[in-house]
Amino acid sequence: PPPLAPHSLSEVRGGTCGEFYARASRGNLDLLPWGSAQRRGLLRGALGCLGVRSSRLHPEQLRSLGALVCDMEPQTIPASGPSILENLKLCPTLTRPQRDALNALLLAGGTSYGAPSCWDLQTLQDLGPLVMALNQTTLSLVAKAEREALARSIVATYSSRGLAQREKSLTLLRTLVAPSASSDARVKRNADGCSPKPITASTLSDPIFFIYYTPREFELCLTEEVLKSDLELLLEFPLPGSYLGALKNRLEQVYPSGIPEEQLRLLGSFSCLFSVEEISRWPVQSNETLSALLAGGCGAPQAQEMIRRFLELGGAFAGPLLRRMGGEKLCGLPEEELQRLPAALMGVVGQLNISSCSPAKKTLLYRTARAHLGTSGYCWLRPFLGGAPAEDLKALAEGEEPVNMDMETFLSLNPEELQKLSVLDVKNLLGTNLPALKAAENEPLVVLWLEKQSQRDLDCILGIGLRGGTSTPPHPTVSASSTPNGPKPSTLPTGPTAPAVSPSTEPSPPLHTTASSTHQPSPAVVTHSAPSTLVPTSSTPTVSTSPSVPAGTTHPIPPTHSTTTTSTSSAPSTPTVSTS
């Protein structure tokens, strides 16, 4: 059920209060602070709605109250009888008076669980979370074998629990075995201060052996023999945090000059308990040792110190080690260390994620990878393309093999280099993944690139509805040359029939001509008075001027002239002109 919304309880109507409080009892009551006015008001409203007039709750009332019972007074437990036990299982914690009332109810023997002296492992498991509330008096009546069986079943789930959860249940575990532990010679200590007995290889055969020791006793009783020969087995036990701290202290006592490298390989996640300063003294010399330590999953400072120590002692990276390190740890290396990476390793490291690298480090890694892989293998280069220059990206786009770059890789490209790519370059890079660019149009990298592209190119080349930052350039009305290799004069030669043409404000591309026009030995001059009409000839290219006569024209056309066509064979260099 959803958590209880903090609405005013005064809005709850009598006709619907039962349904409201039933739903509230199944919600997350922990959202309301313990003892808060709203939480107390919720319980009062529920009791009033259900007609509760005393400490005794009937079964139907208990079903409606659910976890709200957890806030009731301790006397409610014995007054309501065994039916209240199912409600108490819903309580995250019980107060000390509530736990005492619960144990009194169980000791009376009138519940479905029977007398504690008859409980077996199944009964203890059926009690569920109520086991955490059992006191020493109740547990002492349960057979030792059944208590220890329950302790083993709890320890078996430790591997999936965090250290905080282990510590929380440690009190229960020690309580389960306390009656049998008290019969040991705990008061008798050996010369090393250990009691009840030293921890040897045979001790490790019991999966709950550590419960019989306090953390301090655990440290004193760990023998040097076990630490040297059975450290790996010892670390397989789901030890709570306080015991792991005791083990760390004992290792430092046994190895005052530092933990040997062969033992470092066995530490796993236990290595995360050591400080950066302590790690700086470790003999991390082989790829195998560093790989094993990194597998422990320590935080960045400790992992980087392990790598630094490895390099300090002359270690050289191998492919499996780089794969174990991953991109994040690789990015944490200094630039001078990245420069030392052999180029041949780039082909065996797999798909590293170097997104956390700085631009400078991405560039270093790309250059190293390119030195070994070249520019033709996109699949191999893909993890390092965040450091690729624009010319290499263009080479990929223009290659014979389709790239089909995924959007994650595209968004990892260097923003400065991406700005140098044309719309066609991007289309060729993305290939079949081009539609994903539309979905990523609001990404900062894409926004910057789009701002520099013309709308015409985006529409004509991509055609996926992207908006560019520049408008379509206007079509020119004056061509600087009639042939691809011809001159680009700003004015035409003056003469009786050739008026001057004003300079264009920007270079204009040449108009395309028909094949037959390039074979004519001389152009013709065409004049007319029709407004803004391009009049080509079948044998010559034409140039159109603006309807208005620009300033500086030496031979303006009188407005009374009619349209005429004059072919001048004596002026072979005069281009064709259409004037109005």
From TrEMBL:
The keyword Ribonucleoprotein does not apply. The keyword Signal applies. Residues 511-521 have a biased composition (Polar residues). It is found in: Membrane. One of its GO terms (biological process) is cell-matrix adhesion. GO terms for cellular component: cell surface; membrane. Residues 529-580 have a biased composition (Low complexity). It comes from the Eukaryota. InterPro entries: Mesothelin, Stereocilin-rel. Keywords: Cell adhesion, Glycoprotein, Membrane, Signal. Residues 466-580 are annotated as: Disordered. Pfam families: Mesothelin. Belongs to the mesothelin family. This is MSLNL protein.
